[in-house]
Amino acid sequence: MPVKFLKLAEIHLAVFLFGVAAIFGKLLDLHPLLIVLGRVLFSSVFLAIIVLVRREKIRVPGGNLLSVFVLLGVLLAFHWWSFFQSIRLSSVAVGLLSFSTFPLFVSFLSPRFSHERFRPMDLLIALLALAGVGIAVMGTGTSAVPLQGALWGLGSGFAYALLTIFNKRLGMTNSSISIALFEQVFAAVLLLPVLLFIPFRVDARDIGLLFLLGTVFTGLSHLLFIRGLAGVRAQTASVISTLEPLYGIIFAVLLLGEIPSVREIAGGALIVSMALWSSLREKACPPDAPEVR
């Protein structure tokens, strides 16, 4: 099976898991920062176990690399915090669709941070995806709360765009699992102090949901996405990720009863179309980086 097909499949599976993870923002009645902390704690343990079982040799970051991972930990924590905050203030649909503007940020930022060529078609696809988000979010009206949710989603998208670009660069010289592990660990360390300031009470159901969120929908999905980036351009991976709203909205309907409006469906259809178009175009474009094993 062609390597590029496998890498695209890993990106698509990761995006599916990312999308379904959005519903945990509604299922868990916890502060968004506590949800993120539980998520990264369980994912860190999950990835550490994989490293031990597979006897992976990973290099503990130091010097400039340590600074990079601290920065990525901050970005990862902010990305998930703002994402769950967006969903808490609005809905799964609004949170996911506003977050999915991040391909637009990638199109602008990627050529500045990496050696990837700027391709006008990437910008066009991202703009069309952004138009789809605009159509969908307009369906929520003009009240302040959905607008605040959309703004938090935009902040999450910006942070995620930076993560995508830097993970792509790190993947050229570091193993996928080491990148995923250290990002989760540093995010967890940075978030631990919130336990001192935010009152909370968790039961067995909360712990079970956080465990599921941290292992399957974070540790596994994060690892798959970083592995996929080794053979797929950052712009393409970012636009494929706009499929997240489709998966998240479907499961929000099934599990939460959140029925999307006609505008949300129309905007989502445009976003999904752009993601599929980008996937098809990728077959004709060579990857910008060698595969990382």
What is the strand and helix layout of this fold?
Layout: H1 3-21, H2 24-27, H3 32-54, H4 63-89, H5 92-99, H6 102-113, H7 120-138, H8 144-170, H9 176-191, H10 204-229, H11 234-240, H12 244-256, H13 262-282
Helix pairs in contact: 1-10, 1-12, 3-4, 3-9, 3-10, 4-5, 4-8, 4-9, 5-7, 5-8, 5-12, 6-7, 6-8, 6-11, 7-13, 9-10, 11-13
Textual characterization of the structure:
It is a single chain. The protein is mostly helical and 293 residues long. The protein has one domain (3-282). It contains 13 helices and no strands. Helix 3 crosses helix 10 (204-229). The protein is globular, with a radius of gyration of 18 Å.
How many β-strand runs? 0
How many domains, in number, for the residues? 1
Number of helices: 13
- Biggest sheet, open or closed, and with what strands and sense? none
Structural class: mainly alpha
Query: What oligomerization state is this entry in?
Result: single chain
Query: On the 0-100 scale, what is the average pLDDT?
Result: 82
Order of helices and strands: HHHHHHHHHHHHH
Percent of sequence in beta strands: under 5%
N- and C-termini, Cα separation: 16 Å
Note poorly predicted spans: 286-293
Rough outline: globular
What is the gyration radius calculated from CA atoms? 18 Å
Helix content: over 70%
